[in-house]
Amino acid sequence: VRVVESGGGWVQPGGALTLSCAAVGIKFDYYNVAWFRQAPGKGREGVACIDGSNGHERYGDSAKGRFTISRDMSKNTVSLQMKSLKPEDTAAYYCAAAPLLYSGSLKAEDYRRWGQGTQVTVSS
Questions:
Q1: What is the dihedral of CA 90, 43, 61, 34, to 10 degrees?
Q2: Cα–Cα distance, 20 to 3 (Å, whole number)
Q3: N or C terminus: fewer CB in 10 A for the chain?
Q4: Bridge-based pairing state of the strands 118-122 and 9-11
Q5: Integer distance in angstroms from the first to the last C-alpha of the chain?
Q6: How far apart (Å, rounded) are the C-alpha atoms in residues 118 and 108?
Q7: How do residues 84-110 score in pLDDT, each as one tens digit?
Q8: Nearest-angstrom CA–CA distance, 103 and 114
Q9: pLDDT at 76 over 90
Q10: How far apart are CA 119 and CA 7, in angstroms?
């Protein structure tokens, strides 16, 4: 069982990037799936999550109005569309899955399945 992120890279300030998370061995329909990020020297921050069973979304303060989380049930993937990116968005971004009991949670301790992370760098 694992989750795998893709789509990271370098982008200029004001640009956009879409991250994707794929699951192997589990179906996201039965999980709450979240994106977290961690910048050097900082703790892990919850960015956004989506309830795989009903599509309900929740966003951290840094993501509101700029990021959109979505799911594709046919592909068993969860995406994070990011726009108006800022240098402070630079971080390693992680996808994680938690039981639906933790629907709406942006607390890292509630999540058991983690990907390896994908780096996002925003700079000019």
A1: 90
A2: 10
A3: C
A4: parallel
A5: 38
A6: 17
A7: 999 999 999 999 999 999 999 999 999
A8: 16
A9: yes
A10: 9
